[in-house]
Specification:
Layout lengths: L13 H14 L8 E5 L6 E7 L2 E7 L10 H13 L6 E5 L2 E5 L4 E2 L2 H6 L1 H14 L13 H14 L8 H13 L7 E3 L8 E3 L4 E3 L6 E3 L2 H10 L4 H12 L5 H28 L7 H23 L3
Antiparallel strand pairs: 1-2, 2-3, 3-5, 4-5, 6-8, 7-10, 8-9
Helix pairs in contact: 4-8, 5-6, 5-9, 6-9, 7-9, 9-10
Length: 311
């Protein structure tokens, strides 16, 4: 229910938690009869299931408030409903504290290669999202600014005695340098979590899912997220930006985007470091995910510094 606050979970045995989740699914008041439940794998922080009921399929997603990640489920419910009303997301058919039930999209969940192969369609979708979402949004306006997130993650990691605590001064120094070269852009309503798996194509159209981090900001974080998360090279990145802005990007925009790519990877790595302290999603190795994103950040920084100088 919007407005409710659910505390972050204690670390529990995944098998016990899964059994408990299935029991809760069975108890939801929306089903027409007996339901068939199967796990939906791939989430980094939330547990999801596909549920079949009366010839229809749904995704049931469990997720509590994660204040350490600036995630509040009442805001996610609002954003999901707004995205459906604007024509981007599947319908949210039910929500209550800790649970969201959406219609299942029978389609292909994208990977990095799919994003690269369909960059023109994604650029058009993202431009429409940024241009049309705001009128559908309600309630208090949440702002997502990655550099604030990085600074706040550093506080959380220091307080939690993270194994990466000695790296925090360098991360903050890097974030400050990357923030200084951001080009002024209009404020739009963005998704802010454009991992390849958050795009689904049903054979006729492209859908967006997962709106935990949706909020107001500039378009640059979404633009950088698409390209960094899908491993675009320099030429692919410039082509994607050209398709989004409708012109060849100028030098300031290119540097701003390159810097934001680094910032997006730094944020993703620090997200994983914070998750090491606070989350226990079944089957997720947060230490390995931290390492993966730090390696990506390292490669992105080499490219940035080759073009624009040491930071």
């Amino acid at each position: 229910m919007p407005g409710a606050r659910v505390p972050a979970p204690d670390l529990v045995d995944p098998m016990t938690q899964s059994s408990s989740q299935e029991a809760r699914i069975q108890s939801l008041p929306i089903w027409q009869g007996s339901v068939d439940i199967s796990p939906l794998h791939g989430g980094l922080s939330n547990e999801s299931f596909v549920v079949s009921d009366a010839g229809q399929r749904y995704v049931v997603r469990f997720g509590q408030d994660f204040p350490f990640h600036h995630v509040y489920r009442d805001r996610e419910v609002m954003a999901t409903r707004a995205a459906h009303a604007a024509g981007f997301a599947p319908e949210l058919v039910h929500s209550e504290p800790g649970v969201m039930v959406s219609r299942f999209i029978d389609g292909k969940t994208y990977d990095e290669a799919d994003v690269q192969d369909n960059d023109e369609e994604i650029a058009r979708l993202l431009r429409r999202f940024h241009e049309t979402m705001a009128p559908h949004v309600s309630g208090a306006g949440f702002i997502f600014w990655v550099f604030h997130v990085i600074r706040d993650y550093a506080k959380t990691l220091a307080a939690g005695n993270s194994r990466m605590s000695d790296k925090l001064p360098r991360y903050l120094e890097l974030a400050e340098a990357l923030e200084k070269v951001q080009a002024p852009m209009p404020i739009v309503y963005g998704h802010h979590d454009l991992l390849p798996a958050n795009f689904i194509h049903d054979g006729s159209r492209l859908w967006l899912i997962d709106f935990e981090y949706a909020g107001f900001g500039t378009a640059m974080f979404d633009l950088a997220g698409v390209t960094s998360n899908a491993g675009f090279d320099h030429d692919q990145t410039e082509e994607f930006l050209t398709r989004y802005v409708g012109r060849i990007p100028d030098a300031a925009l290119l540097q701003s985007h390159a810097a934001m790519q680094c910032a997006s990877l730094l944020r993703e790595a620090m997200w994983s470091m914070v998750s090491e302290l606070h989350l226990n999603a079944p089957g997720v190795d947060y230490v390995a995910y931290t390492t993966e994103n730090l390696e990506r950040l390292g490669r992105s920084l080499v490219a940035y510094q080759t073009a624009y100088g040491k930071v």
